[in-house]
Protein 1
Amino acid sequence: METNPCNKPINGGSSIPSRVSRKTKPDATIVNINGVKVGGSDIVVIAGPCAVESREQLFETARSVKESGANILRGGAFKPRSSPYNFQGLGEDGLKLLGIIREETGLPIVTEVMDTRQVELVASYADMIQIGSRNMQNYPLLKEAGMCRKPILLKRGMMATIEEYLMAAEYILNQGNGQVILCERGIRTFETSTRNTLDLSAIPMLKRLSHLPVIVDPSHGTGLRWMVPAMAKAAVAVGADGLIMEVHYKPEAALCDGHQSLSLDEFAQLMADLKKIASAVGREISSLKPSHA
Ligand code: PEP
Ligand code: MN
């Protein structure tokens, strides 16, 4: 039976082999997002605003992060906000803007889906579909994502153990979609000085237990713009296959998560610094260009 180093079964004690397990599949899975490969030797950087707010905000941010070397563009059109009175995202209009800037920049798009009824719609615009922390245990949504033929970025639930997280990924693989990327984005602890506690130990643990690529979100993981570069570098140093970070052309004016969004200049500087960390651990910041660029 598959066990983690604490000798605890990772599949709830059942003897059914886990599709996510490295014992089932020793080779690392490489997820191909329109030509950008995650899980190989190159480190992939996903950057962009928390939410798509306007044409100007998205396009200026996208052009700049591309210039700085980002490989994939992020931007939420359907936002899971803690308050129903906060900006909820532009919905399909946001997806349309993502589609336009994708054509212009050649950057593949990742955007979140929150509802089983919208998986098809989101998949028709996105190159990769994000399932957010709040939906990590939304099993109908995981099954729907497993039936769609797009790569899935599955973020760790903010209160999920490693076992629960891997079993959530198992739902997607079990439906026939093996193109899953895991993302550590911080967990809830007693600590309140950061938004979440970024669990960097999850990276070597997930990579030991599973063949799936693992990336890190230091933006939601800390909630603090000034801390994002330090944790991004740390993530690369401990073996992350990539990063997803919030970047905004005017962080102080952002409708969502401005306090944890890097400015365009801060992102450019961080990309230069990350190259040094990557080479110190024998990796490179990906220079692969998307296939349709
Ligand atoms: C996001 O990446 O836009 C997001 C809402 O993150 P999380 O699901 O990790 O909170
Ligand atoms: Mn956000």
Note: The chain has nine helices and eleven strands.
Protein 2
Amino acid sequence: MSQNATRTRHIHVRPNERGFGAEITGLDLSKPLSADILAEVKQAWADHAVIWFPGQPLSHDELEAFTLQIGPFGHDPFIAPMEDRPHILELRREPDEKARNFGAGWHSDWSFQEEPPAATILHSKVVPPVGGDTLYADCTRAYDALSDKMKGMLDGLVAIHSAALPYGTEGIFAQEKEARTMKIIVSKEAEKTCPHPLVRTHPVTGRKALYASPVYTVGIEGMTHEESAALLGFLYNHMTKDEFVYRHCWQPEMLTMWDNRCTLHYADGGYDGHLRVMHRTTVAGDVPH
Ligand code: SIN
């Protein structure tokens, strides 16, 4: 364990040396967590935004039970869940699959919903020998690093979110030519829009974070397309600078939980010819403020 490792009362939290995120060891997620341990896990999650627990083989029941200790399930649209498991999505890509890997674009999960999920929980079942990392961007530090003038300009702006680009009837998945194992449900429903503050305040930490992504943000209220594209383009470049990004390398049976309220993520490819299987749940969130 590195010098940065801290022992809370029950769990070991090893903060990532490069920025944000932390590894947590010293507990078994297949069993219900005591109130004290759960509080420590939630504190570590608030402190680090992305937390991962290596060496946690979990059945579907155990994954669901762990999720429910964090909060009620979120609603996952546009992707067919696992059979008999309405709250678990299987992110599966076969070795011979040519379609682009799922999640390959910076986004915060389901940000087009009125109450987007607070957490996403991803549990690795089969990890390819190369590639398949997940990148996370720290939208809190990215906000903090802006000038006061820019913060003043952004605070109060409203961004418009929609699922049209990936899931709309003329979106990326609708136009996909290559076969895909995951069952994506393209729909008119995806073309609805939902406004959220461009800078949101985290309900637990009270810290402000940028809240927009190239996958789901379609514009800024009151601005022309050109104006929003220029401003959002600047923000996306800023948020995904190396200094705000953590690259997560998976091991099999690792559980990672991230905070959609203050991070973006991007599923990296680079594993053609290899199987990758992950199981994903979401935890309900509230209306962004
Ligand atoms: C996602 O939830 O966007 C996919 C993340 C991953 O598969 O690494």
Note: The longest strand covers residues 119-126.
